[in-house]
């Protein structure tokens, strides 16, 4: 159909599971599954291509796929002409410089004249240039972290999340070049029909993301405390208040932001709230 979008997803790796989970949370059901190169959806005009992440920006630029999910690090390195539609909040990591743990490293200028191993030569070259550092870049496609110990390079520029991979190879993280997360990308010239499908997909992704950022909260309180409790609970518009069977008491329902949650609960208890129940929100349309 003319409104069907093809989305490229990493075949197997650190983006795959969360990409498919997001699709599922959007209520989209894939029919053929793992190990295949392609899949379709029953209930949404979407087709899936499973590829290496490095190839995804290129395929989206060429129009082989209309959409893709990749790390911002790969997107920046590949320099393909595609649109960044939305940050997706998973596969968060950094692209950083790492050096020998015992190096009394004071700053990027110490890499002058040294060699650095990386799978991200373009991003690294730009960073070195911005900092007026001349260094030799060794491009390697994997296991960058072992380069110093085998004498291939004196430093690395690699993806870091906890830092444990660097640490177990005798390295330490020194300079953060960029922060990255998974992003949804799209081809630049989508037809109107495809744009409509993309808007529907974005609407669903937003609802899933908003839901995750918030909690549904129910509590009981004496009527005398309601005004104070309302001032603590901003809610979507204003909280729902229902009378309880017990005279002089009410139940309040509202929505609280995940990152303000514990602070709010403390205040609610102080204000006289009891029997506080908190539930996750699956989708939230704002
Ligand atoms: P492929 O075989 O598809 O080329 P790959 O080995 O290049 O896979 P992965 O290691 O699966 O790539 O990482 C894919 C993306 O996930 C990276 O480009 C980065 O954005 C992100 N990523 C990598 N390592 C981590 C990590 N430790 N924590 C979180 N996100 C990460
Ligand atoms: Zn890759």
TrEMBL record:
At the top level, the lineage of the source is: Bacteria
Cited SUPFAM superfamilies: GlnB-like (SSF54913), Periplasmic binding protein-like II (SSF53850)
Q: Which cofactor does it need?
A: Mg(2+)
Q: Which UniProt keywords apply?
A: Amino-acid biosynthesis, ATP-binding, Cytoplasm, Glycosyltransferase, Histidine biosynthesis, Magnesium, Metal-binding, Nucleotide-binding, Transferase
Q: To which pathway does this protein belong? A: Amino-acid biosynthesis; L-histidine biosynthesis; L-histidine from 5-phospho-alpha-D-ribose 1-diphosphate: step 1/9
| A cellular component annotation (GO) from this entry | cytoplasm
Q: Which reaction does it catalyse?
A: 1-(5-phospho-beta-D-ribosyl)-ATP + diphosphate = 5-phospho-alpha-D-ribose 1-diphosphate + ATP
EC number of this enzyme: 2.4.2.17
Write out the annotated subcellular location.
Answer: Cytoplasm
Question: According to its UniProt record, where is this protein mainly located?
Answer: cytoplasm
Q: Where is the ATP phosphoribosyltransferase catalytic domain?
A: 52-206
Q: Give one GO molecular function term.
A: ATP phosphoribosyltransferase activity
Q: How is its activity regulated?
A: Feedback inhibited by histidine.
Q: Could you tell me which InterPro entries the record lists for this protein? A: ATP-PRT_HisG_long, ATP_PRibTrfase_cat, ATP_PRibTrfase_CS, ATP_PRibTrfase_HisG, HisG_C, N-reg_PII-like_a/b, N-reg_PII/ATP_PRibTrfase_C
HAMAP family for this protein: HisG_Long
Role according to the record: Catalyzes the condensation of ATP and 5-phosphoribose 1-diphosphate to form N'-(5'-phosphoribosyl)-ATP (PR-ATP). Has a crucial role in the pathway because the rate of histidine biosynthesis seems to be controlled primarily by regulation of HisG enzymatic activity.
Family membership: Belongs to the ATP phosphoribosyltransferase family. Long subfamily.
- The name of this protein is ATP phosphoribosyltransferase
Q: Which organism is it from?
A: Marivirga aurantiaca
**Gene expressing this chain:** hisG
């Amino acid at each position: 159909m003319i409104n069907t979008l093809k989305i490229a997803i990493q075949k197997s790796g650190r983006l795959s599971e969360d990409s498919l989970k997001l699709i599922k949370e959007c209520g989209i059901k894939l029919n053929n599954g793992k190990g295949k190169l392609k899949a379709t959806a029953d209930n949404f005009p979407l087709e899936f291509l499973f590829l290496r992440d490095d190839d995804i920006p290129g395929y989206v630029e060429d129009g082989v796929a209309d959409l893709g999910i990749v790390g911002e690090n790969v997107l920046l390195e590949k320099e393909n002409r595609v649109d960044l539609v939305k940050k997706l909040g998973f596969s968060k990591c950094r692209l950083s410089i790492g050096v020998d743990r015992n190096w009394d490293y004071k700053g990027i200028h110490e890499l002058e004249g040294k060699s650095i191993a990386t799978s991200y030569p373009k991003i690294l070259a730009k960073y070195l240039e911005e900092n007026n550092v001349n260094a030799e870049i060794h491009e390697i496609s994997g296991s960058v972290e072992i380069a110093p110990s085998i004498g291939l390079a004196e430093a690395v520029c690699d993806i870091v999340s906890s830092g444990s991979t660097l640490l177990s190879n005798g390295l330490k993280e020194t300079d953060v070049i960029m922060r990255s997360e998974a992003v949804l990308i799209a081809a630049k010239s989508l037809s109107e029909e495809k744009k409509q499908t993309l808007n529907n997909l974005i609407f669903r992704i937003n609802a899933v993301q908003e839901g995750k950022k918030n909690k549904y909260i129910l509590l009981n309180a004496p009527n005398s405390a309601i005004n104070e409790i309302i001032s603590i609970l901003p809610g979507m518009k204003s909280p729902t208040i229902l009378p309880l069977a017990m005279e002089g008491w009410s139940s309040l329902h509202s929505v609280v932001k995940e990152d303000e949650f514990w602070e709010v609960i403390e205040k609610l208890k102080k204000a006289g709230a009891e029997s506080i129940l908190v539930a996750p929100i699956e989708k939230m349309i704002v």
